[in-house]
Amino acid sequence: MVLVKICGLTSYQEAIAATEAGADLIGFVFAQSKRQVTVEQVDQIQRQLPDHVKKVGVFVDTPIHIVNQIARLVKLDYVQLHGKESILTCLKSEVPVIKALSLQGTDSLEQVLDYLPVVDYLLLDGPKPGSGQTFDWRLIESIPLARDKMILAGGLTADNVDRAIQEAIPIGVDVSSGVETNGKKDLIKIKQFIQIAKGAR
Ligand SMILES: O=C(O)c1ccccc1N[C@@H]1O[C@H](COP(=O)(O)O)[C@@H](O)[C@H]1O
């Protein structure tokens, strides 16, 4: 069954709703964003969550010693490095790494392969993180990428996630804007998204 990550959660109510709806991973954005959360907020939230849901912190070009400090403080299971972090930076993380890469054309394919041996998952995203923009999933076909390391993101919704899973064959899918209404997480959309993704194969 495909892993599902619901990203950009900002409250305990959203986090527990996503967890109870069957999310495997939940994401908290520490980077600058309309969904940005503080260390204190995430600490309060994570204390009340069951252990089985994996907590992911999303960072964009934050110095790795700060990423490690936050990961320790709020007990993150993964860090999602969503900027231009180098392979060396990924290696310095104290917790497993999800490296996000924006696929915009065939010239960006090579970098995917370079990161593969040093990260736990590669998250392939559209051109603008957190904006609901998708990319051409056919690009993935040309990467000799172990599908058990690939999480697909970027513009996924309950309407396209089934097709995305059939075409890209990822181990997991990640969504943020696609489960929101008027900029707020929508619990009905979260449930629908997870149900469809989990039923896809
Ligand atoms: O959600 C954000 O605001 C964000 C900010 C900075 C880096 C990543 C961010 N979100 C990630 O973007 C992708 C795709 O989001 P969407 O579904 O297209 O809205 C997802 O991986 C989020 O983790």
How would you describe this protein?
By secondary structure, the protein is an alpha/beta fold. The protein has one domain (3-199): TIM Barrel. The chain is built from 8 helices and 10 strands. Helix 7 links the parallel strand 7 (150-152) and strand 8. The longest helix has 13 residues, at 187-199. The mean pLDDT is 93. Bound molecules: ligand LGQLAAA5. The site of the ligand O=C(O)c1ccccc1N[C@@H]1O[C@H](COP(=O)(O)O)[C@@H](O)[C@H]1O has 26 residues, from strand 2, strand 6 and strand 8.
Please write out the topology.
Blueprint: E1 3-6, H1 12-20, E2 25-29, H2 39-47, E3 54-59, H3 64-73, E4 78-81, H4 87-91, E5 97-102, H5 109-115, E6 121-125, H6 138-141, E7 150-152, H7 161-168, E8 172-175, E9 180-181, E10 184-185, H8 187-199
Bound molecules: ligand LGQLAAA5.
